[in-house]
Specification:
The chain has six helices and twelve strands. The strands form four sheets. It has a four-stranded antiparallel sheet with strand order 5-11-7-8. It has a four-stranded mixed sheet with strand order 10-9-6-12, with no helix packed on it. It has a two-stranded antiparallel sheet with strand order 1-2.
Length: about 280
């Protein structure tokens, strides 16, 4: 499991473009945290300046212009405006967190009385109906993630991928890095290719940082223990369960986390809900 970042060379009209350079970032620390302060606006201005104007719609560009961000013009708010923008970034971040971690929309959940949520409420376009954007669903996804495609959010049996997200245990409590949990995946996990479970930090929305290089476990994990009936028990917590080291993902006391179950090339039992993952059960 490797992470790669594309390095895009600057174009020169008089020189042929050089090939892309791929950098292997496995095992190397790098920040993917979105700022919730004035720096947010500086980064937004950088995007507007560097990207083609036609990549953004007129309404969005109008909102940016209203706070002083306009292509080919300096972004130089005075101290009063800086204070307003700093507060706005913090409020926006808090609002997105509330939408993500405390949604009241029952349609966001896959099953009744379950913590498992869809990341794609309204499909990959996040619409309540054609042409009408579900703002909460849109904010939730792009606060937690980055890119999207039809293969991630639409029903494609035997193709694409599906995602289930959870931030609470079977009792409805936030997942706690200082406690131990078990998740049972019933037999006949409905995938044509493979499945994985990855843990993320509530604060950074990036993978949690622990002594494990990759905070994940899946069907491709070497030595994964499978029960006699074909079910798989996964364990999360600060301490290793004896004999289940390959089925365990380490967590950090004092830090909350959330989890994504990914199914690659999902099969019909996932879509018709005749197969469903267990809830994340607190352990003694």
């Amino acid at each position: 499991m490797k992470r790669f970042t594309k390095i895009y060379p600057l174009a020169d009209a008089d020189k042929p473009a050089s090939p892309l350079k791929y950098v292997n970032l496995s095992g190397k620390p790098f920040s993917t945290i979105n700022p919730a302060n004035y720096q947010f606006w500086e980064l937004l201005n950088q995007v507007v300046q560097e990207e083609p104007a036609e990549s953004l719609d007129p309404t969005r560009l109008g909102f940016y212009q209203s706070v002083g961000i306009q292509k080919d013009k300096p972004f130089a708010p005075d101290e009063r405006m800086k204070k307003i923008l700093t507060e706005a970034a913090a409020v926006g971040d808090a609002t997105a967190r509330a939408i993500a971690f405390h949604t009241r929309d029952e349609a966001a959940y896959y099953y009744p009385n379950s913590a498992w949520q869809t990341l794609f409420l309204g499909g990959y376009l996040f619409q309540t109906e054609p042409g009408v954007l579900n703002l909460d669903a849109y904010d939730f996804f792009y606060f937690m993630a980055i890119g999207v495609s039809p293969a991630m959010g639409e029903k494609m049996v035997g193709r694409g991928s599906q995602y289930a997200w959870a931030a609470r245990d079977a009792k409805g409590q936030p997942l706690d890095g200082g406690k131990n949990y078990r998740l049972r995946l019933p037999p006949n996990i409905p995938i044509k290719e493979f499945w994985s479970v990855i843990l993320y930090s509530n604060q950074t929305r990036s993978m949690i940082q622990t002594d494990q290089q990759f905070p994940s476990v899946g069907s491709q994990t070497k030595g994964l223990v499978v029960n006699q009936d074909g079910s798989v028990d996964l364990y999360f917590g600060p301490t290793t369960p004896t004999g289940m080291e390959k089925n365990w993902v380490q967590t950090v006391p004092g830090k909350g986390w959330n989890v994504i179950l990914r199914l690659y090339s999902p099969l019909e039992p996932w879509f018709n809900k005749t197969w469903r993952p267990g809830e994340i059960e607190p352990q003694p």
